[in-house]
């Protein structure tokens, strides 16, 4: 399918799974797989920008990933810091806005400073929004949103019965972003793993056995082609959609 015929999602969300298995297949340490995964990110960001995708959300480090071996976690933090140092200027030069969502307070002071500087450098860019979820969990996101509303109720600023879905959504870390249209998970697993739980209520899912370091522009095109062929009804019937298109 040509780019002209593709229905381009406004927001693509990806769980980048399979780095460790990619390395194991090559008799390399898991860290080499994560390094290869960072390289794959560069290609996908470039392709999304070319296609006119508005938001690309990547699950870089979940709140559950702290349970991994300490050495691996430490290396992941180093890789995250290295990627920020080496990629933020390039993102800025290409008009890409970088934002990082999650419990940033869980990171070291130096990494928090890098994240703040990256936000400040790219905040006024108008191209693709690269939304990196780091120390993030969907349940955490919903919880922190509800906690903020509960605090307003406790202060007498809000009545509990007035709390709405819109209010909860407006206090999520992704409140300023459109909901994901397409969710991709590489590596063969078929679950959402606590990623953007609230936001993906009507998202189209695409699963592939391809390991993340091998997920390239061609693989992204396949995912978008699959998305392009789907009928998104949002609770309505096919007939209603047809009536709307005929109107």
Shape: globular
β-strand percent reads 5-15%
CATH fold description: Undecaprenyl pyrophosphate synthetase
CATH level-four homologous superfamily name: Decaprenyl diphosphate synthase-like
**How many structural domains are formed by the residues?**
1
Round the mean pLDDT to the nearest integer and report it: 93
Integer-rounded radius of gyration:
19 Å
- Any low-confidence stretches, pLDDT <50, length ≥5? none
Q: Enumerate the strands of the largest sheet in spatial order, edge to edge or round the barrel.
A: 3-4-2-1-5-6
CATH architectural designation: 3-Layer(aba) Sandwich
Structure write-up:
The structure is a single chain. With 247 residues, the chain is an alpha/beta fold. The chain has a single domain (11-246), classed as Decaprenyl diphosphate synthase-like (Undecaprenyl pyrophosphate synthetase, 3-Layer(aba) Sandwich), CATH 3.40.1180. It has eight helices and six strands. It has helices spanning 19-25, 30-51, 70-93, 109-122, 138-154, 165-170, 217-228, 238-246, and strands at residues 11-15, 55-62, 97-101, 129-136, 182-185, 204-207. A six-stranded parallel β-sheet has the order 3-4-2-1-5-6, with helices on both faces. α4 (109-122) links the parallel β3 and β4 (129-136). α1 (19-25) packs across α2, α2 runs parallel beside α3 and α3 packs parallel to α4. The longest helix has 24 residues, at 70-93. It is globular, with a radius of gyration of 19 Å.
């Amino acid at each position: 399918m040509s780019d002209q015929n593709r229905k381009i999602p406004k927001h693509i969300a990806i769980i980048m799974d399979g780095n460790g298995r990619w390395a194991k297949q090559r008799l390399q340490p898991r860290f080499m797989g994560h390094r290869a995964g960072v390289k794959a990110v560069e290609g996908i960001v470039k392709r999304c920008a070319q296609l006119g995708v508005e938001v690309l959300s990547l699950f870089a480090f979940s709140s559950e990933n702290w349970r991994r071996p300490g050495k691996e976690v430490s290396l992941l933090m180093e890789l995250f810091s290295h990627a920020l140092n080496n990629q933020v200027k390039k993102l800025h030069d290409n008009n890409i806005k970088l934002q990082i969502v999650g419990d940033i307070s869980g990171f070291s002071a130096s990494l928090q400073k890098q994240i703040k500087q990256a936000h400040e450098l790219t905040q006024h860019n108008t191209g693709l929004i690269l939304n990196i979820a780091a120390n993030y969990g969907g349940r955490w996101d919903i919880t922190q949103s509800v906690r903020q509303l509960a605090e307003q109720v406790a202060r007498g600023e809000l009545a509990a019965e007035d709390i709405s879905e819109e209010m909860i959504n407006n206090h999520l870390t992704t409140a300023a972003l459109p909901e994901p249209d397409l969710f991709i998970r590489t590596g063969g697993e078929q679950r959402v793993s606590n990623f953007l739980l609230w936001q993906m209520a009507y998202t189209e899912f695409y699963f592939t056995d391809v390991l993340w370091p091998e997920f390239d522009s061609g693989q992204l095109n396949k995912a978008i082609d699959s998305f392009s062929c789907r009928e998104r009804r949002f609770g309505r019937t096919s007939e209603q959609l047809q009536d709307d298109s005929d109107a």
